[in-house]
Amino acid sequence: MELIQRRWRDRTILCVALAIGVCGGWHSHLMLRESGIAESVQQRPQVVDHVMTQNDRPSATSDNTTIHIYHLINLYSVPSDPIYYPFNKAQNVTIASMLRAKQHAHRHIVVHLVAAIFVNDTAASNVAFDAILPLHKSYHKLPFLQEMFDALRQYMPQDPTALIVFTNSDIGLYRDFYNIIADIPHASFTINRRIVPATLTDLDQIEERIPRGGYHPGKDCFVMRQYIDVQFGDLFVGHPPWGFAIDLQLHRAGHGHVNLNSGTNMTFHLGDNGAWKRKTNLIDIHSKEREAMRDCASIPWKLEKMRSITQEGYQNTINCAKLFRSLDRDKQ
Questions:
Q1: What is d(CA 238, CA 231) in angstroms, rounded to the nearest whole number?
Q2: SS3 track for 240-281
Q3: Which residues on neighbouring strands pair with residue 164, listed in sequence order?
Q4: What pTM value is reported for the model?
Q5: CA–CA dist 300, 311 (Å, integer)
Q6: Pairing of strands 214-215, 194-196
Q7: Closest Cα partner for 154 from 97, 114, 104?
Q8: What is the pLDDT of residues 266-317, one digit of tens each?
């Protein structure tokens, strides 16, 4: 009984993240009202196809003091999770933190929450974001970065001051995240997350633990001005070295890219696990595989010490190597 009560409590805490009534009941409605974001979650997101007219795009403002932030994230349904469906616990916490951060944004900051979702994943489309960008391609059900960013740039109006934020689906935000990044003068930067206990779900409790959270070297939060053009080739999300590849691309773009630690008030992650760390379905790394991956070894990817790698990690490292070989040829 105690376990059931705890699961119900956790689930109602996360109802704030959803635009549909999967959580059900008056309790979730009360939490929406108390959180101050009830109105935002009642709105249906704009579903945008890849072919758009000008009317599909949000209007740019002529007010020089207004900053538009477009936060892109890939979401996916998890039918095997009976508690947090249509998502999972990590995604629910992430979505709730993004909605709260949007509500805490200063008046001159306009936040556009944009979800990239596979076109046939209708369950995940019921989320309280401003726009949904349908995805059509994948590698082992993992989305390609290029398709996501191409769709986002089509959706955005031309605005040299606009910021693009891209985070992994399990990266949560501190409530003042958008206010903080709007004041950072760099044209692009990466933010490393803090790790908090995986048992937490309440955002207030999470924020209390962030100052004591451990640092993580992984790259999973990227901020850049709209005018910075970054190519991703066949890189997909979810398995290294996609984050390191984006970071290196931004460094090479020549706009003064910097890496920032999350500190006490930027991003967090529940626990320190990942699908790419799994111990099954691994590929042994021999001389042939190592040579194929070597062109990506300039990224902090412990290639020389690795003895095995997941199929997805191996393919993404090959994709990374192909991408940088192509970019280097173009510069010659």
A1: 18
A2: CCHHHHHHHHHHHCCCCCEEEECCCCCEEEECCCCHHHCCCC
A3: 70, 224
A4: 0.83
A5: 19
A6: antiparallel
A7: 114
A8: 999 998 776 545 566 677 777 777 777 766 755 555 666 677 788 888 899 8
